[in-house]
Each structure stands twice: as C-alpha cells, then as structure tokens.
Amino acid sequence: MQNTISNDIEKCVIIGSGPAGYTAAVYASRANLFPVIIEGLQPGGQLTTTTEVENFPGYKDGVDGNQMMMDLKSQAERFGARSLTRIVQKIDFDNYPYKIYLDNGDNLITQSIILATGATAKYLGLDSETKYKGAGVSACAICDGFFYKGLDVAVVGGGDTAAEEALFLSNLCNKVYMIIRKDYMRASKTMADRVVEKENIEILYNYSTKELYGDDLLKGVLLNNTKTNEELDLRVEGFFVAIGHSPNSEFLEDVIELDENNYVKTLEDSTCTNMPGVFACGDLADPIYRQAVTAAGTGCMAAMDAEKYLAKLM
C-alpha cells in the first residue's frame, strides 16, 4: 500500500524496514497508531540479499529472504500500515511534534518515531566478493553456516566476532581457516585459546585476501602473505567475512545518544532513547545478537513502548 503524504500529524513513523521495522508496523497498526514506514531504497533491509532463511520461526522448509520480507510487509499493510520508499535526509528534534525531511522534498510531522535502520556488514570491498554474495560469501555464520555442513570454509577477521564465527562453523564444517592480516589475533585470550584448541580450525596469520574465484558458486580464495608476498590458493566453498558491522546511525549523531561504536543506546529494559517519543529497535541498537528473530522481537517492543508513550499524551 504505497501512500502519498498528508498534512496531518502522524502518530507514529517507522524509519527503516526489515524484521524490526515491519514487526513494529504490525504491532503499531494493531494499536491504531496508523504508522508510516519509511523503507529506504532497499525495502526489507539486509535479508533481501539472503537467498534462504532457515532459522526464523514459522517457515518449516525455510524461506527466501525477499519473500520473507514481502510477507512481513504485507502483514503490516493488512492492518493499515502505509509504506514509502524514500530516504530520510534529516529530523528536526528541536521542536515537537518532530519533523522528518525526506529526499524528495516532502516532510512528515509525527508524535513518535521508531528507528529501525539496521546495521551494514563490513566487507573487504573486492568485486569478486560482491559477485559471490549469497553464492559462497556471507557475513553471518549463524545465518548461513548450515549450508556448508561438511565442507571447507574460511573466516576473515581476527577479533572476537571472527573467533565466534570460526568456532560456530567448526561444529558444522570439515575444516575452517581463519585468515588474519596481522601476526596475532585481536580476540580476547579466552576466545583465542578456544580457537587454537579446536582441531579443525587452522589459523593463517599474515595473510590478506586478494581474490575470490569460482563459477556460479565460490570455489576458492587467493591469499597474499603480507610479509613474504607469497600467494596461497585456498580451496573453500564458503567465505565468511567477520570484520564488523556499521550501524546506520549517521543521521542521528548530533541528537540521539550513541555508544562508542555508533549503535543507538536505549534505556535498560526498553527501546526508549534519550529523546522522548523516539525508540530504537533491531540491529541499529543491537551490537551483540544481530538476528532476524531478535530484531523482530525488539520491533514489537518499540511499538508497545510508542503506544504507551502516546497514551500518556492524551
């Protein structure tokens, strides 16, 4: 249901889509908040780049990421949510109700805002990496590791996240290579020790990724030794990038309180931010779990928090 913008003051505007934004829209719609969803230019978010989702409740045979987002969006619109495929340029937090400026020159005035803009996985920036996304390249071992059961895979990164990904994959895969640019692991000693002790994990220090290759699917990766310049051809069918995520919070920096890694900070046991009537959910406020099901859960929480906030205004 694509709608034009009215001059009325909205009760609730949801910025971002994906599991968090669409779930917030379902709950907000059922609470008669008549929410507007500003989806961005990639409606559905990161999951639309995932070919198969097998760990979201309710889909016993798995589901295509695009289809899953379409299902969530349709459910929200069934209850009256309105969607706009636009980008937020800025938000005027100095006056209440808040004013949201969109990229096409339109604006929305709203009593509450739910932030659900998510986070973007960091990639190496190789063209071949982009080519094999969803066909061997992934940024989430928990999401996609099952598809590589019994195969050889690689994890690039040397921090706690990379160590966690490697350990998770080691319980599914035949062999896991950890590709680390430096001659040491940045992970905590506990995590590093667990990796070293795992028999089917091999750590490749002082290697950078030069190129990924294959046909329709990934077949291997070419590495370059940062000290000797020696090239190594690593035959793997899965390549997991674990070098971090960037929360999509740039447009909030001056007003909404962020943590040291630019994730939105929320009050304990709630989705409330430091601004009254502004709530945050999903990966934008979650540097730990970053799963579709946890994002959906916090989307529900944000809508319920917004409903309580608006009830107090009456």
Question: How would you sum up this structure, described in words?
Answer:
The chain has 314 residues and is an alpha/beta fold. The protein folds into 2 domains: 9-121 and 245-313, FAD/NAD(P)-binding domain, CATH 3.50.50; 127-241, FAD/NAD(P)-binding domain (3-Layer(bba) Sandwich). The protein is 25% helix and 25% strand. The chain contains 7 helices and 19 strands. The chain has helices at 18-30, 65-78, 127-131, 141-144, 160-170, 189-197, 292-313, and strands at 9-10, 13-15, 36-38, 82-84, 88-92, 98-102, 107-110, 113-115, 119-121, 137-138, 152-156, 175-180, 201-205, 207-214, 218-225, 231-234, 238-241, 245-247, 278-280. The strands form 5 sheets. It has a 5-stranded parallel beta sheet with strand order 4-3-2-8-19, with helices on one face. Strand 14 (207-214) and strand 15 (218-225) form a beta hairpin. Helix 1 (18-30) runs parallel beside helix 2 (65-78). The longest helix has 22 residues, at 292-313. The protein is elongated and about 65 Å long. The two termini are 29 Å apart. Residues 1-6 have low confidence and may be disordered.
Keywords:
single chain, 314 residues, alpha/beta, FAD/NAD(P)-binding domain, 2 domains, five-stranded parallel β-sheet, 7 helices, 25% helix, elongated, disordered N terminus
Q: Briefly note the structural class of the backbone.
A: alpha/beta
Amino- and carboxy-terminal Cα gap: 29 Å
Shape: elongated
Query: Please, how many domains?
Result: 2
Mean pLDDT level: 92
Helix content bin = 10-25%
The CATH topology of the largest domain comes to: FAD/NAD(P)-binding domain
Per CATH, the superfamily of the largest domain is FAD/NAD(P)-binding domain
Which strands sit side by side, in order, in the main sheet?
Answer: 4-3-2-8-19
Q: Strand content of the residues, in percent?
A: 25-35%
Global Rg: 21 Å
Would you identify the CATH architecture of the largest domain? 3-Layer(bba) Sandwich
